[in-house]
Amino acid sequence: MFAIEKDVDLTSFNSFRLASKAQFFAAVSSEDELLEALEFAKKQAIDVVVLGGGTNVVFTGDVPGLTVHMSNKGVSFDGCDVTVAAGEQWHELVDHTLDKGFYGLENLSLIPGTVGAAPMQNIGAYGVELHQYFSNLQAMNRVTLESRTFGLDECEFGYRDSFFRRQAGAEWVITRVSLRLREDDSPDLAYPGIREALDDKKLAPGAVNVARVVSMLRRQKLPDQRSVGNVGSFFKNPIVDKTTAARLKQEFPSIPLFAFGDNVKVSAAWMIDQAGLKGRSCGDIEVARQHALVLINTGAGTSTDVMTLVDEINAAVSERYGMTLEIEPRFYPASPFRD
Ligand code: FAD
Ligand code: NAP
Fold first, then answer.
1. 117 CB under 6 A from ligand 1?
2. CA of 189 to the centre of ligand 2 (A)
3. Banded model confidence at residue 54, pLDDT cuts 50, 70, 90
4. Local structure of 191: helix, strand or coil
5. Which of 128, 162, 213, 258 most suits a substitution to test ligand 2, by most atoms within 8 Å of the C-beta?
6. Does ligand 1 have an atom closer than 6 angstroms to the CB of 274?
7. Looking at residue 1, what is its pLDDT?
8. Which of 169, 298, 300, 319 is deepest in the core (most CB within 10 A)?
9. Average pLDDT for residues 52-73, to the nearest whole number?
């Protein structure tokens, strides 16, 4: 039953487990309920924060205004075209598409969070990004309350980026996402580790098996957000020009660099690890020993601890490599860092 609640504890609604309270909170299970919630916020002249699974947000305090939790459900197939409600779980969708014999999303297995959040940063893993299978999305404007469709070009997808991460895009609440999947079972095996894992397990190189080995690799390499507070990669891999990359290679011959269009992608995890920061902590927030890009909350970590540790990491990376790392998760109610 749709209700707008007051002073709702958000600790269990964010995978980093930071303490925070929403001034107003509404779990919406349909587009009509979303409209009602947005009308309420408009009438009260309060801000709206949209929350899916809370696996990519950092709460820096209590959240004023209305927090809308997207809980709408529904998946419909028309051949290899699938339309999915924003509140569906991404990983469940991947499994469902594979069960139906539609392929493409297998490399994106086990990414936590909702379908509605997936376009936000054009989720990507193991060499595949959402945009490759994206058709369009439906969204509602939190200011004007209009609904409209966004096609591929209008989403301006980039590397862990889209129109929706920018100021103008933040006005839109994504309600449905449509994807066009493949009927041929010819998965992308190019990313290192996938082929080796298939060979190792003596599995045929089909999409279902790729989903299995990607899930296995992720379980081995990443802390599970259900048992240890984290938001996945805390930093994006920097994209630099070729001159900068050449300088880095000369100074640090073993630095992992990857071609990225006309530019070069640098491994942020390697830089943090080589700067000796794995295991470094501030309060209960720690650079995971398991994975240098992930910050974990080992108990009662606070957003102040997060910010102090991020400052320390960025100071070390900047001094050693001459660059500042861009933060991937979104901060609410406000980011102390430059977006
Ligand atoms: P939330 O954390 O709830 O929200 C994230 C942002 O999206 C917020 O700005 C929020 O306002 C906005 N948002 C959410 N829903 C909507 C909506 N319906 N309309 C408009 N805005 C909305 N990401 C990757 O790309 N690749 C990975 O491999 C990956 N691995 C991860 C592993 C772990 C262990 C964890 C914890 C995270 C990982 N992530 C990864 C990050 C995260 O899973 C994704 O960013 C995911 O899409 C976030 O979904 P969510 O529903 O939890 O979003
Ligand atoms: P990994 O395989 O150890 O690789 C380390 C980094 O090198 C990755 O960041 C990856 O960039 C890059 N890389 C490696 N091989 C590459 C290639 N052939 N071409 C281009 N780039 C290459 O990475 P991992 O940490 O275990 O993660 C595996 C995958 O899951 C990665 O794609 C990663 O992005 C994704 N992941 C994302 C999150 C998140 O929260 N965003 C969390 C966990 C895992 P890319 O990151 O650009 O792929």
1. yes
2. 14
3. very high
4. coil
5. 258
6. no
7. 64
8. 169
9. 98
**The amino acid at 41:** A
pTM: 0.97
Q: How far apart are CA 128 and CA 131, in angstroms?
A: 9
Residue 334 has a pLDDT of 82
Q: How far is the CA of 43 from the centre of ligand 2 (A)?
A: 44
Cβ-defined contacts of 72-78 (< 8 Å, 24+): 72/28, 72/29, 72/30, 72/31, 72/33, 72/34, 72/175, 73/29, 77/102
| Identity at 146, one-letter amino acid code | E
CA distance 216 to 334: 36
Least Cα distance to 82 among 101, 62, 67 occurs for 101
Which residue's CA is minimally distant from atom 1 of ligand 1? 54
Residue pair 239/267 in contact (Cβ under 8 Å)? The answer is no
Would you state the structure tokens that stand for residue 245, as one six-digit string? Answer: 């990359």
Nearest CA to ligand 2 atom 39: 233
Looking only at Cα atoms, what is the longest distance across the chain? Answer: 61
Q: For the residues 50-78, what does the mean pLDDT come to?
A: 98
